[in-house]
C-alpha cells in the first residue's frame, strides 16, 4: 500500500516539475498532473533502461526521478504534437 502511495507522490512531483520546465502554459488539473508524472516515470524508465544494465529498476534514485521528469516532458511534447489536450 505504501509503495502505491509513494508512486502517486513521486508521480505528482515529477509531473509538476515537467509542467514547470516545459515551455509554454500547460493547463491541467492535479489528477492529470499526477498521471502525467506516473506515465513519465514509465517512459523515463524505458529510456534509462536503454542505456544501463541495472537489474533493479524499481529502486528509487535521483537519476530515476530526473528521468521521470524528462519522460513526462516527452509525454507533454507528444500530446501537443498530436493535438491531445
Structural class: mainly alpha
Biggest sheet details: none
The count of domains is 1
Q: Identify low-pLDDT runs.
A: none
Helix content: over 70%
Q: Tell me the strand percentage band.
A: under 5%
Distance between the termini: 31 Å
Q: Please, what is the average pLDDT?
A: 82
Total count of strands: 0
- The number of helical segments is 3
Rg computed from alpha carbons, rounded to a whole number of angstroms: 13 Å
Q: What's the overall geometry?
A: globular
Order of helices and strands: HHH
Describe this structure in words.
With 85 residues, the chain is an all-alpha fold. The chain has one domain. Helices cover 73% and strands 0% of the residues. It contains three helices and no strands. Helix 1 crosses helix 2. The radius of gyration is 13 Å and the shape is globular. The mean pLDDT is 82.
Question: Any descriptors?
Answer:
85 residues, mainly alpha
Structural topology:
Blueprint: H1 2-21, H2 30-51, H3 62-81
Helix pairs in contact: 1-2, 1-3, 2-3
Question: What is shown here, in short?
Answer:
This protein is mostly helical. Helices cover about 75% and strands about 0% of the residues. The longest helix is centred in the middle third of the chain and has 22 residues.
